[in-house]
Amino acid sequence: MRWVVATTLVLGALVQPALAQPAKGDPDWPCTQLYNPDLVLAHVWNGPDPAKVGGHWAADPAIAPLVPRLASTARPLDEALAELDGFIASVPAAERARRLPLLVAALHETLDAERKKVIAGIYKLGRSQKQLAQAIRERNDRIRALRASADGQAEAAALEETLQWDLKIFQDRRSTVSLVCAQPDTIEKRLFALVKRIEAALPGGSAG
């Protein structure tokens, strides 16, 4: 009976986050946050179109090495903003209308790619949890059947030990779900903060 209760609790824990999703949500998405696959630059940037200002950010010897330092979520945002302010101050006013949008394009491209990797990892975790929950259910059903049989006690005991490990793995993974599910939003907020700081430094009339 204890395994029946444990299995019910585990499966309930798996299903609960999905209930917060829209009816047409992806069943493999384990987060309560709404699934949003892309960072749309136009949602955060009101300045010139980076594709129309000329050149590419990777060719700028100052922007190319700066981008990974600003984009790294392992680095405190305040530190990144301080370095960004220093870079902006180093750009001559006459060059800002061209170079600052290129930096925006670089940050968007880099952070969007990182966010997509995180989302892929979240999907992998969600699918793995569903598969493990199914295995737990099947193993629990097998244990119940063996316990009802006089000659199945030894096999049932062995399976209970395996099931105990499966339950532990499931719960350990579950404890990380809320953390990993917050990462896409953290990346999005970082892009917003960096882009808005750049936007504020555009020459008058370049934004909007």
Tell me what the structure shows.
The chain has 208 residues and is mostly helical. The chain has one domain. The protein has five helices and no strands. It has helices at 2-19, 63-71, 77-90, 93-147, 153-200. It starts with a helix and ends in an 8-residue tail after the last helix. Residues 14-24 have low confidence and may be disordered.
Distance between the termini: 64 Å
Total strands: the figure is: 0
Whole-angstrom Rg = 25 Å
| Largest sheet features | none
Number of domains: 1
Summarize the helix and strand pattern as letters: HHHHH
Keywords:
rod-shaped; 208 residues; mainly alpha; 0% strand
What's this entry about, in short?
By secondary structure, the chain is an all-alpha fold. Helices cover 69% and strands 0% of the residues. It has one domain (2-200).
Mind sketching the topology for me?
Layout: H1 2-19, H2 63-71, H3 77-90, H4 93-147, H5 153-200
